[in-house]
Amino acid sequence: GRMKRLRRHGHESQRDRLKQELFQFNKTVEHGFPHQPSALGYSPSLQLLAIGTRSGAIKLYGAPGVEFMGLHDENAAVTQVHFLPRTVVCSVLFFFLPKSLTAVLAHSSGELLLLGTEGGHVFIADVLSHSFLPLVYPYTPVSSSVPNDYIGRRNLEHVEALQENPVNPNQVVIGYGRGLMVIWDLKKRCAVQHIPATQQLESVWWTEDGSYILSSHSDGSYCRWMVGEEDMNEEEEKSDIPYGEQKKLPPFLVFSGGMPRASYGDRHCITVIHGKTHVALDFTSRIIDFFSIRPLNDDFSALVVLVEEELVAIDLQTEGWPVIQAPYLVPLHSSAITCSHHISVIPLKLWERIIAAGHLQNTHYSKKPWPITGGQNLAPDPPQRDLLLTGHEDGTVHFWDASGVCLYPLYKLSTAGVFHTDADPNDNMNQGTEGEWPPFRKVGCFDPYSDDPRLGIQKIHLCKYSGYLTVAGTAGQILVLELNDEAAEQTVEAKVVDLLQGQEGFRWKGHTQLDVREEPVLFPPGFQPFALVQCQPPAVVTALTLHSEWKLVAFGTSHGFGVYDYQQKNSVLIKCTLNPSDQLAMEGPLSRVKSIKKSLRQSFRRIRRSRVSLRKHHANNAAKLHDANARLEAELAEMELAPVQRKIEARSSDDSFTGLVRMLYFADTFLSDSSHHTPSLWAGTNGGCVFAYMLRFPPVEHRADEPVTAHPAKEIQLMHRAPVVGIVVLDGRGTPLPEPLEVAHDLARSPDMQGSHHLLVISEEQFKVFTLPKVSAKMKLKLTAVDGSRVRRVGVAWFGSSRSEDYGENGLLVLTNQGDVHVVSLPAVKMQVHYPCIRREDVSGIASCVFTKHGQGFYLISPSEFERFSLSTRHLVEPRCLVEPPPQSGTSTQHRPRPAYRYAHSEMLFYYGSYYILTVFMRLSSLPRNASQDGGHDAGKVFFRGL
């Protein structure tokens, strides 16, 4: 007995070491566009872009692959971001301000910060000495030089702007909200000139030669003021209204706003005027900030604009000022994301064909490279080519290069052309109306409006070997598409499939189906539809899979499932799963699910009505109030998480939605006997039922004309009736069956057909293994009974060892409703590791999660951002980059730190909220971690702690 215990202990310790070599949890990088951006900063010397958000995040971007992130632990908005140009000794500085901060100037010396407040005061912070003093109390010295019409109103309002003279660093202009501007000499500590503008001040800019100050005002005008040396006299105001009477304009002028309020007050515009060229760039979301890029001793090359939903760079050196395609910060939510699908290890030929089709869609972009080039990307080239496909509300599918740190757009497929919609096919976002004034030009790709919500893509499946793609939508439409390198004109005929199978007593109350175009449609190069299945009723498609070797597509809705032969364009199987009590399945997607918010709202209304009536009939309604409160408590209790160690209770067969199809799976396995394997289809429902159908194919020479048939083979009803979320068949070696055509391309071993196969059924509550073909239970792993959680997402993944290139294991990736990720071993079905990943309150994040075949995952942390994570020690995509300071004149290079600890000799400055300012000496390097480091980490992130 002692020897047995020792052997068991030795095996467990060996297994623990193996787990450390296989599994490690890391959140690695955030893809997409920051949610709710609130500030923009740019360092011309470092060539870095900084974006602050309302949630307290700071994100820095340089050349593609150079990314850094800082996150404040308080949910405070970043209102401004500035870079200090020289080395700062301190690590973190906090300055407490008596007034709310309204303006910041990072002085070119790198030693001073000028801070303007809402009370009209200006403070100065010496960054090197950590001192913080008032620079000037403006009312005392400045008021003596203020003109008479200002004397009667002492309140000059807040400090709106602070700008440094580009030729004389000792001079700064202080702009006040009421319009007054004061040029202040820092060395002499006195005002050298005042500029008494009469309109409310919006912004101030000092021209490069220091001879003029430009001010913009609330009435849509801007003014030019000549700067005179020691001249205290008022300079004549020169006012221009660019969308009013035309006067002589500066050689290059860029401004936001200024539109006539009555006609265009709702437009989000930036106007660019250069000589005779005048364009109003029209964005679809609110403008946050912008800056221009001007290489040394050269003309302006680009204009970079941050709006609420995207970042746009305009090429100012190419005729027509086209947009420069961004390598990062692309708005994933140009239309709302409705589903995602990841494909690993894309063959080179398919990859090149997709890129070629995408290039034809991008001819309107500038040929110039991305203008922000700071830092060095130290990451090696990705070992494989990965695709992330996102389906969208407007019926589009976006193809993204997910191989590295940058989620780069490759190609966009639109399915709207197959159907009749309200969209104008000739609508061009980049063309304005001839002769229109103001000369608007639509810019950017963010378009929050969908022509028809029925177009929304709900499921995607791509075969990377054959180039076949199938997508399914909100109104029961399933399209089968093939990659074509040439444009083609063709008619797509719809095959209507009645999933109710003529059952009486059911009437669909949801949306109607989309109308298919009867005339031929010209499809551009790329994925082109050649087959269309229309489900009746036209409910949301809830499950979809494609077998390109068999030329079959399987689809499911809340009413049943079917199989379609896209070679012969015929139905192979139609099965209705609707329970007689499933009346909610006939209501449609907008009304069939009672939301938590609606449930709570109705409960509070019942309480409110009870309280109102209580005043009139106190005695009669006391019981009603008690009942309403009891109902509310019951509904809240239903929302609570299940307690630990609860018993799995069998669900009633009349639960709503029991017939909804959750899972479809093709497999070549043993169904009738243990000596003959056959193609099969497996379907799992919301009521814990698994259907198995045997598929029979004609001989190869008659495949095009003789029908494929489907025959019922097995039906399994799980005792606890929990929804089936995954089905996997394991071969004789305990390995999941390979993908279609994977063996034919020599990318997988042929499955073992000698030993017995096993069926793994994953429900929301447990994992259960059955032997095939007898379908007798062999083993199970309970999840809900142990910790109260439920399975929300599951996927098969391969985990390679970090120590041995030759060793790896298959496992199940599992995400629960608690936001935890688990790895379950195969074929033993034992829990290996688990990590907290997503906040359990983040229901949309959990619902959006998608796993990869190599142990990584993506989930939405906002409508516009994916968080990427990994559970594999071998497959890890994270920023590995470095930013080095430009050489400073008069600075010795021999005292630079060693390469492993290099810091950028430039600081990032930002502030949160109203009462303090925070400067951070940020380590701008994201280098490979120490091999001895254990546990998870967030790569490339720095968390800033507040007071």
Q: What does this entry look like structurally?
A:
The protein has nine helices and 63 strands. The protein has a five-stranded mixed β-sheet with strand order 2-3-4-5-63, with no helix packed on it. The protein has a five-stranded mixed β-sheet with strand order 33-34-35-39-37. A four-stranded antiparallel β-sheet has the order 1-58-57-56. It is mainly beta. Mean pLDDT is 81; it is low at 87-95, 230-237, 424-432, 590-598, 603-623, 632-650 and 889-947. The radius of gyration is 32 Å and the shape is elongated. A hairpin with a 3-residue loop joins β53 and β54. The longest helix has 22 residues, at 618-639. Among the domains are: 34-135 and 877-947, no CATH class; 332-365 and 379-425 and 437-592, no CATH class; 594-656. α6 packs antiparallel against α7. InterPro entries: Lethal2_giant (IPR000664), LLGL2 (IPR013577), WD40/YVTN_repeat-like_dom_sf (IPR015943), WD40_repeat_dom_sf (IPR036322). It comes from Mastacembelus armatus (zig-zag eel). Belongs to the WD repeat L(2)GL family.
